Amino acid sequence: MFVTVEEQMFSSALTHDPSRLMQTRIMSSIHLLLLIFFLSQTAALRMNNDSIWDFNFENDAAELEHFRYSDRLVFFSAEIEDLTLDVLEPLASVRELRFRKGSIRTAWLPEFVETFSIHNAETKELMISVNQNYNVVSLLVVGCLLDNVPENIGQLSALRTLDLGFNQIEQVNMDLFSGLSNLEALSLRYNKIFEIRSPDVFFLPALKSLMLNSNKLEQLDICGWNMDHLEYLRLDNNNLQYVVNILDQFPVLQEIALTGNLMNCDWKNKLLEDISKTEISYDGPWYCDPELVTPAPDDCPSRYMKALLKRQAEDISSLRRDFKQQQSIIDQMSQTILNLQVQQVEQYTNLEAANQKISDVTAQAIETEKLLTEYMEQNSKLLDYLWISNQDSLQSSNG
Prior knowledge:
Layout: H1 5-16, H2 18-42, E1 46-47, E2 51-53, H3 57-60, E3 72-79, E4 82-83, H4 85-88, E5 96-103, E6 106-108, E7 115-119, E8 125-127, E9 138-142, E10 161-163, E11 171-173, E12 185-187, E13 195-197, E14 202-203, E15 209-211, E16 225-226, E17 232-234, E18 255-257, E19 262-264, H5 265-275, E20 281-282, E21 287-289, H6 302-398
Parallel strand pairs: 2-3, 3-5, 4-6, 5-7, 6-8, 7-9, 9-10, 10-12, 11-13, 12-15, 14-16, 15-17, 17-18, 18-20, 19-21
Antiparallel strand pairs: 1-2
Helix pairs in contact: 1-2
């Protein structure tokens, strides 16, 4: 490396003067601290049309006004302790709202967005209000610190994609998802789930993809699950020995993943045999534990069938009630239409009577006009007669 004469002299002077060397080191440290402070101050807010970097709510809240009419906005490394609805109020026109990294401890889901995502942040809680008219279609909270499925998530009736992967969730109650009749994709992968509780009857009628892989599941009871459109199922990298009725429960299943589970050998072999008779694809290889001698159940317990029959009976009863209500409404509307028709007939009859009366009066007026014409003609003749008589009388008197 090239060193100037001045640098050599400076280095030599420092070497022979320890106090000066210490002063120089102190000054260098101060300069370094000042540089770090300067850089921290200059690493300020940066923005473009649809992105914002290093947003700090306390310092930069007013800047959100720049995005009041934006459709899409992405935050990078935002510092917002509580992402409340008041914070988001200036963004009411945004339909796609995303947060990447940063510090967001608690987030309230805004009702105006269609896509909402938080990735790799410190979010511990997602709040969903009751009885709000949410429009969200895609909801992703991934790589955060969630330890449970958000309450009231069943309020999101328009939701199609839900990804809560890479969090800290340990227990799941599938009943929370009731009401998500349009949900097509659900991911709970890479959590710490060791238990999934389900009601005896549970419906996700539109679900096509379910990802429960890379958790700590030892048992999974799917007998009450009704997911007639499920095509893709991932259960790999858990601790499952078997899953009862896994093929029959999902009639249109196309792909299944079970690697990383130490399965019951009899169950595994029977499942592979059943899969070979279908067009279902699967990952592999699958391993089993020969020491697991407890036989796996062949089918779901009868209580699930009873529960399903009960649910169907309740649905039929509800449909009958709805039919009776609809029939009552139809009867009321029919009676209203009949009354209107009667009123129209009466109005038509009255109209005909009025027309007849007008015709009669018109005829009378015509007759009166004829009489008046005759009277005027007679009156004119009488006047002519009187005038002639008067002329004759004058001539006689003059003569």
